[in-house]
Amino acid sequence: MDNQNGQSLTPKKLKARLEGFSRVELIHSPTPFRKLERLTRELSGPEIFVKREDMTGLGFGGNKSRKLEYIIPDILAKKADVVITYASLQSNWCLQTAAAARLFGVIPLLLLFKTHDLPDELDGNLLLDHILGARIRIRDGGPGKFIDEAVLEEALEEAINEVREWGHTPYVAPVGGSVPGGDMDRPLGALAYVDALLEMHDQTEQEGVAPIDYIIHATGSGGTQAGLAVAAKVLGQGTKVLGISVIEEAKKFRGEVLSIALDTEKILGLNTGLDADDIVVLDEYIREGYGIVDQDVADAVRRMAMLEGIFIDPVYTGKAFVALLDLVDRGYFKPTDRVVFLHTGGTPALFPNKSRFTEFLPG
Ligand SMILES: Cc1ncc(COP(=O)(O)O)c(C=O)c1O
What we know:
The chain is α/β, with parallel strands linked by helices. 42% of the residues lie in helices and 15% in strands.
């Protein structure tokens, strides 16, 4: 079968299309996949599994290292020797980019923006960025919950000029590695999550638990969700991808994810008929805002640790897990459903959030 008319494509054929892209090996794959037995029992709901993208093995792990397997070759092909990227102060993306860059002799220059009130003390990812010897520029993100466009443009221009003055060649990598921008003109990061879904497909077949009904995960720049949604559509097993937004309103964000997904299809030569209905984004778990820890997040982090010995983080995976627990509670899933919680990493964020987090721990 081919998929020119929205039909499905075999996993083997989809894999073959991915093989047309340059890739470096950064992660230990397949990442672990297992049933969360105690959680499933406690909830008496659907069967719940975890895919450990926090165990990719680069730095402290996370979804960004899988994406970087496709982005690093683009940096090298463009003969850059400094990667400039940007995000919030405790960014997982920036840390993973810095770690990957070091493996290939590329210097990381990070523009880190203070977008909420975390102190810029050396803790969490910021400490790790320093250990990696990244060149770090900390700035105020400007008013509003996102990094102000004009502030970002100015900071990028300054950084590019600085690198050129050093006599080096910069490559600007867009935040999250998914939405084309800077020197990356294709959604390379999203390809990695097409690949991750194929990997999970093999694991679920081997374990005799295919097909998976739902995958639930934290969504931020949209590439993870876009890649998963494309692959789920292509394989045609009816797997639904639920993106739990940690920052942006669903209404706007769905369009952004769809656009990355359609660009991803284009570079893979696919035309699956994927549309807005395939992109489910839930934004009610943002609650008070990006990175703000509340009682539910703290409880969710503890619950996962105490039941399954797995640490999740308070900014991304903690919110996705709050969503999973709430959706089970509200009867969103059938008891026979198989649901995968995609652990996308981010655990170093537990440490800089310690004072907020401990406010919500029992005595
Ligand atoms: C731990 C973690 N989970 C999930 C995400 C969201 O991934 P994406 O940017 O592909 O939407 C991020 C992005 O920063 C992250 O750091």
